[in-house]
Every structure is written in C-alpha cells, then in structure tokens.
Amino acid sequence: MFRETELLSSRMTRLQSKKYSVVRDLILASISCPELSKTSSVIETPDISEAAEILLTGRHRKKKNKKEKSSHDIELENLSSELVRHQVALLHELFIIAYQAVWFPSDDKTLNISWMVKIVESSTTVHRYLQAFVEQVMEIITRAENNFLTSDDTTLLYRLLSVLKTILQQSSKLRRHIHDFYTEEFRYYVKPQTISSSLSPDCPLTPSTLKLVDDVIGLVTDTPLKNRRPPR
Predict the structure, then answer these.
(1) Considering the chain, what is the average pLDDT of its residues?
(2) Which domain of life does the UniProt lineage start with (predicted)?
(3) Are 28 and 119 a contacting pair, CB within 8 Å?
C-alpha cells in the first residue's frame, strides 16, 4: 500500500491525521484474527505443536484426512490463509513507515516502531494471530523442503520474518510467548540450509531473507533475559 504516493512526506501527512487514529486502526486490522467455526467431523488435534509431539512420542502426528473436511471448511481455511498474507503485507508496510519516520525532523515522536508494537501487544487477538502467523511460516518451510520457492513465497517469507523479528526485538512479552510456544518449530523445522537451497540466487531478497532466518531463529530459541536463571 501507499506505493503510489510519490513522496514519503505525503505518507506521513496522511497518517498523522486524527492523531494517528488511522495508523492504530490499520494495525488492529492487520492483526485481527476471527475464529473459524468448522462444520466437518474432523477430530481436533491436541493443543501441542507438531514438533513438540515428535519429541514426546517419537513419531509424526497423523495428518488429517482431507476427505473428512467439508468444502465449507476448506474454503474457510483458504480464505483465512489469504487474509493472513494480506495482513502480514499491511503490518510490514506500517513497520517500514515507522522506520522511515525518523527521516523527517518533527517534535511529534508518536509514530515510532515501539508505539506500533505496543498496539500489537495489547490486542486481544494477538495470540491467535501469532499462531496463524507461525503456521504461514511453516507452510513455506514445508514447500522449501522439496521445491524452489516462488517469488511470491520468497516475498511472503521475507515479510513474515521481518515482522516477526521486529516484534521479537520490541516486545519482551510477545517474545516470551513465542519462545514458550514455538521454540520447537524454529529449532527443529526452520533449517537455514534448506531455505538457502530453495531460494533463487538471482532474487534480490535472498541475502536479506537468509539473514532474517538466522536472526529470528536466534531470537526465538534463545531464552529471554527475564526467564533466565540467575548465576550461582
């Protein structure tokens, strides 16, 4: 969004209207996560990540049979996945704008990345959003294991990791949540070498994406400072 705006200052003027209420509304829209009501008789999986289940049981979780899902459920899942992709693109763009705001000298320092992440953190749907967010990452990782990623996949992965890195760096609360619930995914499933071999060397985003992979793995798997045991 806003790509048609010729000057960055025009962006800032638009977003500053009504005391940045437009920005707040856009952020909340980018992390809204409606609960889907399923109509099929598919047995729900336990509230545990697939990676954690492998560690506990030594075997992969049985995949749900696609035939057990109604066409309504499949359509809802596809729409939900598409919604998350658009939300990620929106939130990524908003974060970029916050970083660009420092280019314009102003006494009003409201529009900054810390303020934006606090809005994300305070949302009542943020945990459901993060779950859908990580599921998107894992879908791309699964495709990367067997195929070259398309340009759309590469762009989405870059945005996902960029947004996730910002959240991890700016919110200790959300970082603890991500560390507690998704460490196994990033420690055992997100493999830099696999991702590297699936990205086109000619893609301009490849170097930045690979760096983001390393950065995010480190931030997710490293124990947050407040959770570390004090030295004896």
Answers:
(1) 81
(2) Eukaryota
(3) yes
Token look-up 């066409």 returns: 71
**Are 26 and 90 within 8 A, CB to CB?**
yes
Contact 199, 149 (CB under 8 A): yes
Across the range 12-41, mean pLDDT stands at 74
pLDDT in tens, 88-145: 999 999 999 888 877 766 666 678 899 999 999 999 999 999 999 999 999 999 999 8
* Domain parsing of the chain, residue ranges: 18-28+71-221
Whose tokens are 């030594």? That residue is 58
First CA to last CA distance, the chain: 52
Q: At what angle do helices 151-170 and 71-100 cross, to 10 degrees?
A: 60
Tell which residue, 113, 107, 35, 115, has the closest CA to residue 77. Answer: 35
Which ranges constitute the DSSP H helices of 16-112? Answer: 21-31, 50-57, 71-100
pTM of this structure: 0.78
Distances from the Cα of 80 to the Cα of 29, 61, 150, 159, angstroms: 14, 23, 21, 17
